[in-house]
Amino acid sequence: MVDGAIELRDTLRYCALPTSVAIPELMMGIREAYQAVDGYLGRLGLEDRGPAIVRYRRVSEAGPLHLEVGWVMPDLTHADPPYVAGELPPGTYVVGWHNGPYARIGEFTRELIAWGDEQGVQWDEAREGPQQRWTSWYELYLSEPSFGPEGPVGSVEVALLLRGTDLRDR
Predict the structure, then answer these.
(1) How many CB atoms lie within 10 A of CB 97?
(2) CATH number for the domain harbouring residue 97
(3) CA-to-CA distance for 159 and 112, rounded, in angstroms?
(4) pLDDT by residue (tens digit) across 34-64?
(5) Does 82 sit behind a cis peptide bond, omega within 30 degrees of 0 on the bond before it?
(6) Would residue 143 count as lying in a domain?
(7) Is 79 inside any structural domain?
(8) What are the beta bridge partners of residue 136?
(9) pLDDT in tens, 80-117
(10) Which one, of 130, 83, 115, lies nearest residue 6 by Cα?
(11) Pick from 1, 26, 92, 104: CA 20 to 30 A from residue 55's CA?
């Protein structure tokens, strides 16, 4: 059982590489995108970075996931294509903290969404055929991973934006 929280969050800026990847290749696609963004930021001399981030833009069990993969960079306002200087919108989010194998983050996120549904929240997402388009769903990787029997292990914060909700209304 997941214990989530409902929190008001400020804007969060990041630098990332947009990528599309099929679910079976998710870990490899994310790793390759991190390597590319790391190289780009290194060429710019930007070594001071916040936590690693994966932002989910569109998801589908039947098709590729559309992601942005990179690092929190509060002062970055421009990136050269194909990289983006993105911004997560402020608002009220359902937030959960996963400590364990990265391979179980998907299961954790499904449980967090179920927890939010039990709270009666309205997600800021829209259906587009078999896909869901999320205004803001992201994972922050809060620690350097270690490696266990299931692969990388670490502390990850998962946050999903709510539609038209403000904590002050609760």
Answers:
(1) 17
(2) 3.20.80.10
(3) 9
(4) 999 999 999 999 988 999 999 999 998 788 9
(5) yes
(6) yes
(7) yes
(8) none
(9) 999 999 999 999 999 999 999 999 999 999 999 999 99
(10) 115
(11) 1
Residue 169 scores a pLDDT above 60? no
C-beta of residue 142 within 8 angstroms of C-beta of residue 155: yes
| Overall number of domains in the chain | 1
Does residue 94 lie within any of the structural domains? yes
Which residues constitute the domain of residue 161? 5-165
Residue 170, in any domain of the structure:
no
Cα angle, residue 9 at apex, residues 7 and 14 outer, rounded to 5°: 140
- Supply 108's token pair: 């954790």
For residue 107, CA distances in Å to 15, 67, 110, 139 come to 27, 18, 5, 13
Query: Residue 28 above 60 pLDDT?
Result: yes
Check if the beta carbon of residue 54 is closer than 8 Å to that of residue 17.
Answer: no
124-161: per-residue pLDDT in tens? 999 888 889 999 999 999 988 888 888 889 999 999 99
**Pair of tokens at residue 102:** 């990265």
CA separation for the pair 160, 96 (Å, rounded): 9
CA-to-CA distance for 27 and 67, rounded, in angstroms? 12
Contacts of 27 (CB under 8 A, 6+ apart): 102, 103, 151
Give the CA distances from residue 52 to residues 49, 75, 86, in Å, rounded to whole numbers and listed in that order. 8, 15, 13
Q: Which residue has the tokens 């070594």?
A: 47
